[in-house]
Amino acid sequence: MPWDNVGVQYGLKALRDGKITPAQFLDLNANVGSWKRSADMVQEGCPYVGACVPGNIDVWSARNMNLSPNGGATPAARREGNRDAMNAAYRSGMVFRGKIDIPIIDWRNYLEESLNMHNSHQSFAARQRMLNYDGDASNQVIWSTDGRPPGAALFDQTPQALQVIDEWMRNIAAHPERSVAANKPPDAVDACFHTDGSLLAKGDGVWNGILDSKPAGACTQAFPIYSTSRIVAGGPIEGGVFKCALQPVADAIAHGLYGSWAPSAADVARLQQIFPTGVCDYTKPDVGKPADLN
Asked: Domain range spanning residue 84?
């Protein structure tokens, strides 16, 4: 398994923002643990909440987690990812590093309030990876169509997207001397749409405030992007960190990682018990990435 959560401080941003207390932060990280090895996983069963009926199965439950044996007094074990698997994921091309030069319309329904797995931040994770690779994401267009209220009929913007892509590709065929971005048709721009598919806003800047510090654009305001546990733990929006670089707890405190919280001696001892090898330092690259690809 390539994924690793050693040193990951779940709830760090919530702590810094004052949404959880230091005691809650410590309790969370002492209990969070990790998934078991695949070989140790067991058949799932009924959920902890709700009726035990067909279809109401708890797919990912405590049965397949490494948890603290005594409510956090002994911190739950974290998962050490396999470095060979991480290297193989990069070298095989399974990891999108941002190298792409074809026309892209990344369209999805806005389903954040449904807690749908097709979360909107993934569009921007892809864009940030492109920007990280060569500073250019001009060949990617991001569209989002409102899917609210939860359970509403979802409008399919795909036919419109295909028409725009077709025009874009015809432009490229007719003008191969131009860049992909220079061949964009007028509608190949960032945009967002109402639940019925009608245009809400489009153009440069509609998604401002997600990958930059600019005031929120019209689409950003209309469609707030939900976060993830790794982003709240301090990870980058583009994800892709299989194994974080570690720093001693003392260094993290000295660098102001915990915001206004000044851990007491007892708090420091508890942090060191929970994170005996240190905590994530996301200012450094993915440790799981082959050195020659950095």
From this structure: 1-31+70-94+240-294
